[in-house]
What does this fold into?
Amino acid sequence: MLPADAFDAEGFLRRLEDWSPEVARQIALAEGIELGDAHWEIVNLLRAYYQEFDSSPAMRPLVKYCGLKLGADKGRSIYLLALFPGSPAKLGSKIAGLPKPDNCL
It folds into this structure.
């Protein structure tokens, strides 16, 4: 478990290198989410997106990237909302240990 000061006021990790699967579980539980295989698939996809583009995706690019990498059935907003309610791009990025996407409130 990381100390509280490892996170910013919104619960995002301050340092990317502090992330681990255990930290992801800690963040997810704080958000009321128990991570299953489908969640991990998106968390890993978000981390791959960050490595490729050096930024966290907003919702539209995330949906497009999911469709490209995981198929049309998973490249839909409704699918992502079922896994990460509210704002999938923001919540998914938080759990993935990435910075908050630029255009998320």
The mean pLDDT is 95. Residues 1 and 26 are 7 Å apart (CA to CA).
